[in-house]
Every structure is written in C-alpha cells, then in structure tokens.
Amino acid sequence: MTVSVPEDRFEDVPDFDYEPQYVDLGDLRMAYVETGGDGSPTEDEETFLCLHGEPTWSFLYRKMMPTLAERGRVVVPDLIGCGRSDRYEDRDEYTVDMHYDALRTFVEELELTNITLVCQDWGGLLGLSLAANQPERFARLVPMNTGLPDGTQEMSDTWHAFAEMVATAEDLDIGELVANGCYRDLSEDEIDAYRAPFPDERYMAGARTFPGLVPQSPDDPGSELFADAQDRLAEWEKPAFVLFAKNDPITADNRDPLRGLIPTASEQPDVWIDEAAHFLQEDAGEAIAEHIVEFVDRT
C-alpha cells in the first residue's frame, strides 16, 4: 500500500516558498521543486540536479537554491519515502533498485541534460551511479559527504549505531535526527520542517530502511550497481569537484578515496567545508553554492 503526505503538513515550513510538482512513476509520484532557468529548458541550459539523502528532503537545499538559480535551472526532487514524495508503507518495498529506478525515471521524464549533479548522502549513492550509467546527460559532478559502498568497505561504529537506532527506535524523531547531524543549532521551525513529511509511523518506512540498504558485503543487493559506478567513474573525463565537511563522523573518511577515484577531481581546488557536519547544506549552504557556481564558471 502507498500513502501520500497531506499537503497541510508543509504549511508552516519556513523559507521554502516553492510550488511542488510531481512526476508519475506508476505506483508512486515523485515530488520536486524547481527554480531558475528561463522557463523553456534547452540542451544547453545549465541544470543543477540537487539530491538529498537520509532522512531529509528538498528543504535541505533552500539556502543553496537562490545562488544556483542565478546561474541556471535548479531541480530538487524528494526521494521516494521522503519529503512530499509518495511512499510505500511496507519496508520490504524499499530496495536500492527501486530508488535507482525511480531517480532514473524522474530524470528521463523531465528530459534533464547538461546536468551539474549536486549530491549528498544517499543522493550521492544514487546520483553518482546514474551519472556513471548515463554520462551523456551529465556535465559535472559535485559529490558531498557521500560515497559508493560496494560491500568491501568497513563501516564505522558510529554508522552501525545510527543504522540500528533508525531501524528499531520506537519513537524516531526525524527532526532531532537531522539536528544532531548539523554543526550549527537548528531553530525549532527548521526541526519541525524535517518532521513535516512524517505524520506518523505509516510514513516512516523509507526513512527507517535507508541505512539497512547500504551493502555490507559484495553479495548484498546494490553492491554491483555501486561497484560498476566506481569502475565507470574511474574513467570519468568531465569536471568533478568533491566537497566534504570537516566535522562529519559518518562520511569524512570517504572523501580522499572518492577524490582519488574520479580522475578530474584533482584538477579542482582541494577544499574542505569548515564548521559543517553531515548535513553541510544546512551548515554552510550559501558558501557551498558559491563554490559550485565558481566551479561551473571555470569549467
């Protein structure tokens, strides 16, 4: 069974006055917002595809969208089970393939091209895999606080504790979860904005399953997709700019291997985002957007 989040849950979300739009995926609708561009997309138009991860939604990019919109079209979807997107109630419906296919269909339905991919957390696992498989659609990569776990990697004790808590906590407070992953203190209104997509447990299945989808061995579902993406990105010839936060205990160790994997990443400045943690868009969104626009301008 699928459920849709009542729109009135989003009435009090601050600083996010964008009209939601939807792509029909068959069983589900994938929500997104967009801004910038001239209203008539062309193959040559700069398009920023901004992908969030667990357990956030497009609201995470609100501080970056105005700056990026001055440079091109900005498209920010909500992954299935997150934000305004529809969701399955059954946890078993959430798989790596389901999420990947949903994102692929979304990009194809909107006919997105000349994409600068801006991605964090699960947005990177899915987005980098899509870019690796459809490089003709993508012009640049900006991976942030993410990776491509193929099951051979070691996950930290912090990550394992997080995954266990998300899957089993009786009362999972998504707002507090996000707040704890930020360097700065969020306001109560901001914390409530991250709670908004989750009225009750029926809406939580996607958020609860994401950590458990990370491959823990090369035989796990998703490991082949991510391993293949690594192989393809090792031959990537288009610009790539790796931006990680200094204070993220979950993904900081992924930064140098990812920067070493993508050949063109070393051609860009060696930048860490100071005073930022896992949700670096919250902590330093405006500065990150400026880094990205400068990257686009020089490439």
Fold and architecture overview:
This is Haloalkane dehalogenase. InterPro entries: AB_hydrolase_1, AB_hydrolase_fold, Epox_hydrolase-like, Haloalkane_dehalogenase. GO terms for molecular function: epoxide hydrolase activity; haloalkane dehalogenase activity. Keywords: Hydrolase. The protein has 299 residues and is an alpha/beta fold. It has a single domain (2-298), classed as 3-Layer(aba) Sandwich (Rossmann fold), CATH 3.40.50.1820. Helix content is 33%, strand content 14%. A six-stranded mixed beta sheet has the order 2-3-5-4-7-8, sandwiched between helices. It has a two-stranded antiparallel ribbon with strand order 1-6. A hairpin with a 4-residue loop joins strand 2 (21-24) and strand 3 (29-35). The protein starts with a strand and ends with a helix.
In DSSP terms (H or I, runs of 4 or more residues), the helix count works out at 10
Principal-axes geometry comes out as globular
Mean pLDDT: 97
What is the name of the CATH architecture? 3-Layer(aba) Sandwich
Spans of at least 5 consecutive residues with low confidence: none
